[in-house]
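[Solved] Which block belongs to which protein?

Original post:
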Amino acid sequence: MERLTAAQLHQYLAEHRLLPCRQSVYRSSHSTETAITDVLSDAITAADEQQVTLMGLLDLSAAFDCVDHELLLRQNFGFSGAAFEWLTSFVIGRARQVAFNGQLSPV
């Protein structure tokens, strides 16, 4: 079910050109290596043209936790009915808990 949902979501985003052209995650033929190659290529091209290259780096590893999930869901992304309700259940009203050495973390 998750693969089908991911495929539908990716198709919707691609058809509506909502994926940034340089986004590498979850895209075939894209990886960390291709992202680094793009950045390096841009820097070399700028150096060849005697331009300065400035790079700002930002760690977005927990970015999804900072997103307003209700605002995100208003976008709908082509889902409706039970599929949309199922997707909503992943981001609204979820609690996380970790079990380690027989102890549970707070919810």
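(Second protein starts here: sequence line, then its structure tokens.)
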Amino acid sequence: MLDREIIETKERVESLRLRLAESDLDCFLVTNLNNLFYLTGLRSSAGAALINQDELLLIIDGRYVTLAEELAMSYWKTGLTVIQVKETYEDTIVEQVIRGHFNRLGVESQNLSVSRYRFFDGALRNKCEVKETVGVVEDLREVKGEYELSCLRTGGRLLAGVADKAVQLVAFGKSEREIAFDIDRFIENVGFECLAFDTIVASGSNSALPHAKPTEKRIEVGELVVLDFGGRYSGYCVDMTRTVAVGRCSDELIRMCDSVREAHKMAIESVRPGIRASDVDRVARGVLGRYGLADKFVHSTGHGLGLEVHESPRLAPSVQLERAGLDRTLRNGMVFTVEPGVYIPGLGGVRIEDDVEVTDNGYEVLTESRVNFVNR
């Protein structure tokens, strides 16, 4: 870990402790593995953490003990204690909660299975109240620190370079799978750890499916081809989409492309601190509405980016966000996609997507490439 990274990691733990105090929780159990990495710096396929006002206990099995102890000694110095699992994670967690004499234990209800929750609730009955929580750590992850932003900026720049090459792959006669394979190689070869998700290449009527899978279908003249791809850089995900027109397209396809290009541009230009996430969505839908295509926009305008490719904040209609209490006020350091799209079954679809950082002065596009729409 870099110095800046470990400083930010420790600051996150202190921010979480403040939230626990406000929630009247004296201990918190982290089982979401992305949250575990966010708070400790350890990337693993299993693990948990118990956090209270005095201790941060990293509970880990034998596969990761050496790595965890090196992390604790080399970077944390103090403040992180490694606890090796004895028999099961559940038994070890219960043992540590009882040892700490805690009154109220918060658990991540969105990540904890019903069976695990029932186990903890039963094992701790009459000793500690088990309290379900939602989004305690995820809310902290919405605003990125400087180290996180540096990862996302670098990832965005690298992915923009991939985009400039990817659009050149689209040609008459090539299959969707061939193009997807080549895009994946580009992503792997420029410095990403791995793909952020399965690459989408969708042509012709397939492009009307927002999450289409690449097939053996071959590209034909007069079609639109949607390319959606992403990479993970230093643990952080970036994501972008470009649409390519192959040869001369119909007037209806051209109208779709024009509407999405304008909606994409206007939505990004609306981004600034202090507005609501739904305000950006409203701008995009307003543009598409002027083209008579608002009802063909079937997903949200954007989603947060970070340790996961889909996280908070979400840019969607206010009626959806307000119902769930998720219409966030945009703040400096938030990073999300802006990706309006139009999809007409049997005809085709268009989507243009970039990653945007909220800044003091408004916004910065992290995936700035030479083109957002290409005619081949």
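Accepted answer:
You had them paired correctly. Confirming on the second one: The radius of gyration is 23 Å.
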